[in-house]
Design a protein that fits this description.
Helix 4 (114-143) crosses helix 5 (156-172). The chain has helices at residues 3-6, 21-25, 46-50, 114-143, 156-172; strands spanning 30-45, 58-70, 76-89, 95-110. A four-stranded antiparallel beta sheet has the order 1-4-3-2. The protein starts with a helix and ends in a 9-residue tail after the last helix. It has one domain: Bacterial Protein-export protein SecB, CATH 3.10.420.10. The chain is built from five helices and four strands; from the N terminus they run ααβαβββαα. A hairpin with a 5-residue loop joins strand 2 (58-70) and strand 3. By secondary structure, the protein is an alpha+beta fold. One of its GO terms (cellular component) is cytoplasm. Homotetramer, a dimer of dimers. One homotetramer interacts with 1 SecA dimer. One of its GO terms (biological process) is protein folding. It is found in: Cytoplasm. Residues 15-25 have a biased composition (Low complexity).
């Protein structure tokens, strides 16, 4: 087989699949979920507590925040996804329910360059945990007396970029006359 075939250019051997140059150039990324668990879960059924009457037309808001930290063991990281789901009646803005979920995963990660580790932890790891979070939120809202809440897919890349832009803007806002240092 020629070099042209192995780097993806058309070439010599028929039926051979070209290798992807990125995989050949970098050692492979190794990602394992060692554990995942609910750190904290709270569901408040305000309708049942206060007895809201009349027609109910719910509006649901979801807030997501992410956190990650290195663990003591080599190549291990903990990623925490925090979800706050609030529902209020669209007509009178009365709260219907509040659900807060902190869901964590412990990951073993190798082969990711240090400068790419933070985005990897904040994008890929939450993406892997998402189906479990979605199921928990659906079950809790259903068990709390409401229709199951099916969380829409989250674009963790966009979420990461928004947070990076927010941090860059807040760091860029400094009082007049202050040096950059």
């Amino acid at each position: 087989m020629s070099d042209e075939t192995t780097n993806g250019a058309p070439g010599g051997a028929s039926g051979a699949q070209p290798a992807q140059p990125q995989q050949a150039a970098q050692p492979g990324v190794r990602l394992n979920i060692l554990a995942q668990f609910t750190r904290d879960l709270s569901f408040e059924n305000i309708v049942a507590q206060k007895g809201i009457g009349g027609e109910v037309s719910p509006e649901i808001q979801v807030q997501v925040s992410l956190d990650a930290r290195k663990r003591q063991a080599e190549h291990q990281y903990e990623v925490i996804c925090k979800y706050r789901v609030t529902s209020q009646n669209s007509s009178d803005k009365a709260k219907l329910f509040l659900c807060e979920l902190d869901y964590a995963g412990v990951f073993h990660i190798e082969g990711v360059p240090e400068e790419q580790m933070h985005p990897f932890l904040m994008i890929e790891c939450p993406r892997m945990l998402f189906p479990f979070v979605r199921r928990i939120l659906s079950d809790v809202t259903r068990d709390g007396g409401f229709p199951p809440f099916n969380l829409d897919p989250i674009d963790f890349v966009a979420l990461y970029r928004q947070e990076a832009a927010r941090r860059a803007q807040s760091e860029g806002e400094r009082p007049q006359g202050q040096p950059l240092s």
